[in-house]
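Q: Protein A?
A:
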Amino acid sequence: MPPHTTVGGVMRQVLYALGPGICAYVWVFGPGVVVQIFLSVTFALAFETAMLIIRRQPVNLFLSDWSATVTAVLFALCLPPLVPWWITCLGMFFAIVIAKHLYGGLGQNLFNPAMVGYVVVLISFPQIMTQWTAPLAIATASLGFEDTLTVIISGQLPSGMDWDSITQATPLDTLRTAVANGQTIIEARQSPIFGDFGGRGWEWIANWYAIGGMWLLWRRVISWHVPVTMIGSVILLGLAAFLIDPGGSPSPLQHVFSGALVFGAFFVATDPVSGCTSNRGKLFFGAGVGCLTLAIRRWGGYPDGVAFAVLMMNMAAPLIDRYTRPRIYGH
């Protein structure tokens, strides 16, 4: 059986495709993401093993499908690099135990487990979850691997350093704050946190996630329907808003190359379990995620709305599938 037709084979392909984006993430923000991935995978496998034993399921069989590992890595890539270990643990508990196993395990979950875990910790600890480290290219201070590990485990910075010196708002949050304070987008983009199109460093991360996503498309692990409609709807609606109000609305490329849009389009919204199954359904699903993401970024309480948009469309997926099922031949 070809590797990409088995659950384990598909999950490994996703992990391979995430590799370029992870490397870019480390290059831009430092080694914190490596620690977060290690912690997330460790907690995920521990919770997965415990739930399989409780549910009297074969542990080795289900651990070898790599689904818990993929959930953990996707969750870790949503976290600020210096988030304390216990937040990672809590997020994995909700992702694996609540969102996955309490719904019946792999294939039965209504919601994307990684996004459930992320949204729970984002809503519960908004201040900690917005402490993103500054890109290394513009940071006034940075941490090595040992210091990063110490901060994540103990929550204490090295002596002589404070959080303001190593963290700053994300590009999307910076734009929201600037517009709310009466600045124009052009004025806000004078900040060194912005690059040519989107956020400095975030542009490269988005590009390498896109390369990984293209590889998944080439390998036919995912189809084009969700990524194209999700990114396309953001570009079209973002362009319309930008043309109407260029001073208060970011350009479409700013939306694409800042935040988690590309990551979500190729690796999150394409989840075959919590998304739609028919090709027509995937078109509606991707467009819905894109539109909701743009709406949350414009009017919502959080600067980036990809996770919330995915979860809301997860609720709508069964209904979309019901009305987009291919017609049976002869009917």
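Q: Protein B?
A:
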Amino acid sequence: MIVSVTNKDVDLALAPSPWDLGNMVLYDLCKKYPKHESDEAIIAKIWLIGRSYAAAIERRKIVQASSDDFYKKTVAKSIKESKIDHWLANLPEHIVNPWEQLDTVIMAHKKLMDLFKRITGLEKRALASKYLHFHRPDVFFIYDSRARQAISKIAPSINQIPEIKCKESDKEYLFFVRKCLWLKDDIFKRFGIALTPRQIDKILLSVTD
């Protein structure tokens, strides 16, 4: 059964939320420390974002060290030695046509997801999307199981949605982004309002609630 987003849903997405202040703290943290050059900044960002969004990186396949040692000796080192700053720098500054410009966004998500898998032994699809979202909230849609379930109730089947061509991707996140873009376009066509990825997430959470 397809759920239709209403004007009330859009108003809810635009309205203040009790979570706004907490999210602003995370946005400000990533804005103040956008790079991945110091252990302290890396640990603060991955720890606070992961814990706040039920996607902690210390949840891993094989536990061989305490969480403190894992963050200091494995997480910070691996992220610092990665090319994450290059992936972020390679993203478009301004989005004019997301269907043609989000390929680098989807590829950055795949690269970070692969990095997290090397670190934890697990797919960290949700954590990768959330971590990147707080660095570039204008281009990264927030993925998790609730959002995936909600968008499946709203968007048409994937073969009815335009493609996004990219060299490499996590297929599940790629399909999720395409459906979110479809929803964003549908809302703009019907209500004349361009929602942000955060506001799209608020709509998806309201559907699951």
